[in-house]
Amino acid sequence: MENQDQIVFQIILHGGNGRSSAMEAIIAAKAGDFKRAHEKLKEAADELNEAHHIQTSLIQSEIQDGPTQVSLLMVHAQDHLMNAMVVKDLAKEFVDLYESLGL
Q1: Residue 42 near residue 89 (C-beta atoms within 8 A)
Q2: DSSP code of residue 68
Q3: Alpha-carbon Rg of the chain, whole angstroms?
Q4: 80, 15 in Cβ contact below 8 A?
């Protein structure tokens, strides 16, 4: 089994990928490429879902095995993931807005 730091790094990796895809969705929408924007939103959602599954496995492990020692790295991963989720939600709103305006 992977050690906890390796698992936490996976949350950071997928969270970062999700955030990047969300930002790329906004850029594509701004350029009028709505097909690409929606593809990037889907990529962002997929990456963030993967990060969320990893996070859930850590939570389930703690429920089964008792309290987990929380590191600064884990706090960073949680912060990184939550910010990425907010960026994805806002990116969807931007894409919808650009699309509705026909820009």
Answers
A1: no
A2: P
A3: 16
A4: yes
Provide the CB-side half-sphere exposure for 55 (13 A, CA). Answer: 20
pTM of the model: 0.90
Contact 83, 11 (CB under 8 A): no
CA-CA-CA-CA torsion sign (103, 40, 45, 2): negative
Active site residues: 76
| Cα distance between residue 69 and residue 78, in whole Å | 14
Which residue's structure tokens are 């969807």? 92
**Tens-digit pLDDT profile for residues 2-55:** 688 899 999 999 999 999 999 999 999 999 999 999 999 999 999 999 999 999
